[in-house]
Amino acid sequence: MKSSVANTINSKVAMPFHRMLAYASTDAAGNLLYTTVTTFILYYFTDVFGLSIAAAGTILLAARILDAFDAPVWGFIIDHTHTKWGQSRPYWLWMAFPFAIFFILMFWSPNLSATGKFWWALITYLLFGISYTGVGTPITSILPNLSNDSDQRIKLNSTRSIGGMIGYFITATFTLSFVAFFGGNPQSGWRNTAIVLGIIGFCLLMFAFSDTREINKPKKAVSILNSIKAAKANWPWFILVIVFIFYWLGNASRTSVVVYYTQYNLGHKEFASVLNALVMMQLIGMVAIPFLVKKFRKTYVLMAGMFLAAFGQILIAFTGQSFIGLSIAWSIASIGTGISVTLPFAMLADTVDYGEWRNGIRASGFLTAIGSSFAIKMGSGLGGWAPSVVLAHAGYKAGAVQSSQVLSAIKFSISYLPAIFFIIGGLLILTYIKFEKQEKSIRTTLLERRGSLDED
């Protein structure tokens, strides 16, 4: 038995490239639409749709907090799913259309009263968020079931993150150009751009569904009670959830004010597209992860990524009107965020193993739903809301010449605020190290248990 287990651990089952590409397309679709929202929604609500900064901030906070709590629900649903396609994979088929249609409706810009606009924005934003959880949760929950090899999981996750980075690059870099190209006015431009991106996202999710496969399929659905029990005393999972929330706090606070900073502080709104394009520097961090984790523990690599992101954000405060200096600082931070946004997903797969080892329950849906979708939504919601509070307190008015107090608030929101969140997350991840040291023995024990069960 032990020899068989050792052979299972040491064997490297190569994942076909087309299947890795299919898995990568999930994050490409998710980021294509979700990044458009996280990057531009505050600006769209205030400067295009016509909401006040206070109303927009309220929508971001209320909808995201409410929406964040649908993550465990989706996790329960996935753990309780038992189909011929697996647990996670079918949701890309079932949720692709709602995901695309609510995204389009959010940018539809109907001619309504101020109250009507508020409720339209709140409801469409909330429904889009719920549908995103239905698409995004399976992206992470399927990873522990795609491969049993930790190195293979890291490669899969890095490939998936590169796909997500491509989706991010397209929307963050070209969205403003698409808006100008597709419409005679901002409202029609945003509406038509949303339609095009929505169709592309739908097609990518269909491709993901058609070519991914789950090799670890539970013989029966996991009950809601057992899903909750899987989190009992799962300390590495708790740590990752908190750290990931702080990452998304930092990331959302930095991206949500890019357009404000380039338009009002620099006087060149179009430079926002350059900065968003430079987020592609995240690829350096993403590609480096498989090499770094061979030399250093994942805990230290993630901590370094968070600290590097914080360093880059702090540098922005000292770049003044220098576009080159700002680009360098933004690129440094992006390399750090590339590591910080990618590695936790692979580490979450390891916490699913820990939960099975500790509690005898493999609840990949629930654990990864909280660790990914809940953390992303809670962190992004609060991270997008925080700058709106800072700007509202400083007296921001859409389209107006901003006071020095407002300009300082915008500068703080793009520099020091995200740095603070990144530093806190980087310090907290250090508590994960003692659990990482147990991973190999845990995996060996799990394979022995599964072998025994198969013999029975």
TrEMBL record:
Keywords for this protein:
Membrane, Sugar transport, Transmembrane, Transmembrane helix, Transport
Residues covered by the Major facilitator superfamily (MFS) profile domain: 20-437
Domain of life (superkingdom): Bacteria
Q: Which residues cross the membrane?
A: 21-45, 51-78, 90-108, 120-144, 165-184, 190-209, 230-250, 270-293, 300-318, 324-348, 414-433
Please tell me whether the keyword Mitochondrion is annotated for this protein: no
What main location does UniProt list?
A: membrane
The UniProt entry lists membrane topology as: Multi-pass membrane protein
Q: Does the keyword Lipid metabolism apply?
A: no
Subcellular localization: Cell membrane
**PROSITE patterns named among the record's database cross-references:** MFS (PS50850)
Protein name (database record): Glycoside-pentoside-hexuronide (GPH):cation symporter
Q: Which organism is it from?
A: Lentilactobacillus raoultii
Lineage, top ranks: Bacteria, Bacillati, Bacillota, Bacilli, Lactobacillales
